Amino acid sequence: MEEILQTVLQSHRDLGDMIIHILRYLAPLVALILMIRCIKPLLTFRKEPEIWGWLNMPDGTQIPITHWENVIGRSKSCDITIDFPTVSRNHAVLTRYDDGSWTISDAESKGGVLVNGKKVQICAVHSRSRISIGGVEMQLQPISQKQEARQAQLRTKAASGWDSVANLLLLTILQILMTLGFLLSGTETDLIPILQGFGGILACQWLLFGFYGMIHRASFEVETLAFFLCTMGMAAIATVKPQESMKQLIAMVLGVIIFLIIGWSLRDLERAKKVRYLATVAGVGFLVITLLFGTEYYGAKNWLIIGGMSLQPSELSKVCFVFAGASTMDRIMQKRNIIMFIAYSILICALLALMNDFGTALIFFCSFLIIAYLRSGSVGTVALAVTALIFAGVIALKIAPHALQRFATWRHVWEDPFNAGYQQCQALMCLASGGFFGLGAGRGRLQHVFAADSDIVFATISEEWGLIMAVLTVVCIVVFGFFAIRTAYMARSAFYCIGACTAAGVLVVQTILNCLGTLDILPFTGVPFPLLSNGGTSMMGAWGLLAFVKASDTRQNASFAVRLKGGKKA
Amino acid sequence: MNRVTNRTWLMAIFILVLMTGMLFFLGEYWMKADSWVSAPGSPHVYSNRNLGVGTIEDRSGTLLLNMGSKREYADNKATRKSTLHWLGDREGKISAGAVSHYAGAMVGFDRINGIYNTEQTAGTTKLTISSRVQNAALEALNGRKGTVAVYNYKTGEILCAVTSPTFDPNEVPDVAGDTTGTWEGVYLNRFTQVSYIPGSIYKVVTAAAALESVPGIEDMTFQCTGKVEYGEGENVATVTCESVHGKLNLKGALANSCNCCFAQIAEVLGRDAMLEAVQRLQVTDSVRFDGITTARGNYDITGAGAASFAWSCIGQHTDTVNPARFMTLMGAIAGGGQAASPYIVSQVTCGEDITYRAQTEKTDRIMSEEIAATLKTYLRGNVKDIYGDWKFPSIQVCGKSGTSQVGGGQTSNALFAGFAADPQYPLAFVCVVENGGYGATTCIPILNKVLSECKAIMAG
Q1: CB A538 within 8 A of CB A315
Q2: Is A92 helix (H, G, I), strand (E, B) or coil?
Q3: What are the tens digits of pLDDT across the range A71-108?
Q4: pLDDT over 70 (residue A477)
Q5: Which of A134, A338, B367, B432 lies 20 to 30 angstroms, CA to CA, from A358?
Q6: Which of B17, B25, B95 to mutate to test the interface with A (most CBs of A within 10 A)?
Q7: What are the start-end ranges of the E strands in A66-186?
Q8: Chains A, B: CB contacts under 8 A, how many?
Q9: Is A216 left (phi over 0), alpha (psi -120 to 50) or beta?
Q10: B92 CB near a chain A CB, below 8 Å?
Q11: pLDDT at residue A566 above 60?
């Protein structure tokens, strides 16, 4: 009897070992296919030339209007160049709105803008309005609704719904494979939280997809990649702190809700501009609250403990900062707005200096750089550069001494592998132990090292799931970055363009600091890897940033953040 | 809009930084991953400070340690005790540097699979020591602290390197709570990590220096009256012998281990020549093998008076030598001024492959063949004329004993270093017994046992 039992047990074990062996190669393969399928449409869509109207000049020529926001002026870099001595270099901004209406606003020009003979600051224009810019008369001729509908049809379609279903199925297979890996790894005690964690992500992704179907949106690549990152993050949590899987899952659900709310508020530019004020206040508010009621960990005061939950409000501040930095073209052209943004940045900078959080400050600084560069035209470049200098100066004087220790071990971790370089050396040892395909779920040893599920999560993933899988997580972020750049060319407004680029920039910079810090290629800063690191607030913030990336996507039926024309289906 | 969109290239820079960083890392991974995996403290390869995968066996294939999760040592208790310091204990208090050194060759790492298959393919490290000789040596030491080591000066293989005190890793003693001194320095490998006051075995160094630097030294004679005095009045310092040896030449002075004669030889030799000889003979240098760097010795005569300098040439004053180093010196004399460097890891296999195979490496030439030959006849004379060949019934040896005063009212340390006279058995050896009394009396019986075991092993 006992012999039979032994044989059954043994065959069971052999089978388990065999499955684990197959899993090693199967999981990265599924992930790789998923990745290629998601990346291709994001990076290869065509940019269709679009025309939204014409400017009829007095000599009978027609100048095509190719954007929703157009700078008119003498400068060659203007969207509509009118080479006439009385026209200022940047004279006016011609803006189209979602409902097809147009305005023209004066960009602090010398000669001013006249509509129907009246000098205006900002004024709605119709097809019969006479516009005079520096004495040059012109008439706006918007495209007809029929033309617009045709143009909408010509726009690259986002992937079909079935492609997205296939992608999601692949992700689901991956999630099941990973759960199976944990089931077979013999971590019986923590099975329930692990099942909850993976199951929760699985349910959440299908629910969101269902919701997209209801609102006739088909493109799900960005979301699929984000859920892939969340899944890998859950794998790290499952091995390091399984009891926190539920917490992280809730944070992810909240993140998706934030993603939808921000997306909704971005859908209507006028609404977005209003929400922007709220976000601006909230951005400062989060930091002030942290300063007043926060708790200091490891020299940085960036934690807020509420009812046993620890929050990092600065993570949400990043989203607010992106909101505050984004701006429409007509406002970008006004000096006053740039000065306001500089003042706002200085305020944020001062608060960060008080918090003593080097990593966060660095991320804010980089996003400031991106915003500043995208916004600054001929006006204000110098002022922005000066602000940047102050920003950097404050960081250097106030925060850097605290971070200097980390710089001291940079590229020298192997000289002190049991002390100063401990985390990174352990990370590299374990990462290398895993090879390309990993050691299998729950079989890593890095889990015993501090912050294995956050600061050095890249190595934890690599150890258990292989270097291929870990590199794919970085690839996801790289794709978000390139996608933001590509969609910028199609963005309806500078607001979306700046928002998407800055948001993607923050994600990329965070990945640079986290990942390259773990690998001792850059100094170790302990910044979370977006969507991957264990950390609720960081998870929510990352989803919030993704909403900006998604909002600039104007492919047909692609993004919930862009309103459908005439309720047409894909 | 064009202006804003054209500026998005800035983002591309950040992406480029990330991609370049990752590529750089992948390059590093390709170049260095094996060294990362096998670095000390690597969680999958080490348990505590010691290697945690693979097996270790002795020269005849006896299993000494299986480094799997349970860390199973040899079945034989005596073997567990005698080999512990080369294997490392479970708690990592004794670190097995030589075995760890070949971690990379043993864990079966490859860049693609990492150490995934290690359970099946983890390798075997073969040591040059023989558990049989080790056990004999430890038994001969009979609980006394010290070290006994023998190596083949033609191949470099260390046949025996035992350190005492030691313990059975399966019955770990209460070292921290010990007040009797039984376990003092138990975590140290006395062969590699300790340097001892050499006493009279150092006269070999002085004799070598004299043969090198003083023309006609072999024809000179020195008079021993039992005492040499330096300075006058209250500041008088002396070098003494236990008996009056009378008139002796260099060979006689070495054979009788005459302090007074050696004090006079030191004077003839001079400080510079002695310092230069110590350096040339590498007496105070570490020996490096298999990732181990032994303790350095000491020879420092700065500010030493005439008597102190004389004592420094007799292996007292502040002199210290490491046993492994002195054994190598003996090997060099036996080998005609040059010998093989000692090593303890002979081969590492991983799966089916031999990933490391030791190769004999020569030491630097530290003396001419003539001087080596002369010293050899001197050391042979010591045994034949003074200690007596009958004390080494199994094998004829050349050697020099030492009895070093350690101060503090303690019994002297007993030392003996030398080599087998028969070139068929190219064995150089060293023996130190802490507080063991007279070198010859204490060490010779131990060495006789150990050498006869070595001879048996070599005969097959």
Answers
A1: yes
A2: strand
A3: 999 988 889 998 889 999 889 999 998 888 899 999 88
A4: yes
A5: A338
A6: B25
A7: 69-73, 80-81, 92-96, 102-106, 113-115, 118-120, 122-125, 130-133, 136-142
A8: 167
A9: left
A10: no
A11: no
Displacement of CA A426 from its chain's centroid (Å): 30
B1 interfacial to chain A (CB closer than 8 Å): yes
Question: What are the φ and ψ backbone dihedral angles of A106, each rounded to 5 degrees?
Answer: -75, 130
CB burial of A117-154 (b: ≥16 within 10 Å; e: otherwise) equals: eeebeebebeeeeebbbbebebbbebbeeeebeebbee
Measure Cα distances from A166 to A45, A170, A485, B171 in Å: 19, 6, 26, 61
CB contact under 8 A, A429 and B4: no
Nearest to A504 among B11, B17, B33 (CB): B11
Alpha-carbon distance B67 to B304, whole Å?
50
- Cβ neighbours of A301 (radius 10 Å): 16
pTM value surpassing 0.95: no
Q: What is the DSSP string of A51-83?
A: --EEEE-TTS-EEEE-SSEEEEESSTTSSEE--
If one counts every other C-beta atom within 10 angstroms of the C-beta of residue A188, the result is: 8
What's the token pair of residue A170?
């692949």
Chain A: residue nearest B42 by CA? A429
Q: Which residues of B touch A70 (CB under 8 A)?
A: 1
**CB-CB: which of B3, B9, B45 is closest to A377?**
B3
Return the number of other C-beta atoms located less than 10 Å from residue A503's C-beta.
Answer: 32
ipTM above 0.90, yes or no: yes
> Domains (ranges, CATH) in chain B?
204-316 (3.40.710.10)
Distance, in Å, from the CA atom of A520 to the CA atom of A415, rounded to the nearest integer, reads 12
Instruction: Count CB-CB contacts under 10 A for residue A101.
Output: 12
Q: With contact defined as beta carbons under 8 Å apart, do B346 and B126 qualify?
A: yes
The two three-digit tokens of residue B164, written as one number: 């005492």
- Give the residue on B whose Cα is nearest the Cα of A437: B113
Distance, in Å, from the CA atom of A466 to the CA atom of B161, rounded to the nearest integer, reads: 43
Summarize pLDDT for A304-318 with one digit per residue, the tens. Answer: 877 667 788 889 999
Q: What residue of B is the nearest CA neighbor of A428? A: B36
Which residue of B lies nearest to A472 if distances are taken between CA atoms? B22
Angle at A240 between CA A239 and CA A242, to 5 degrees: 70
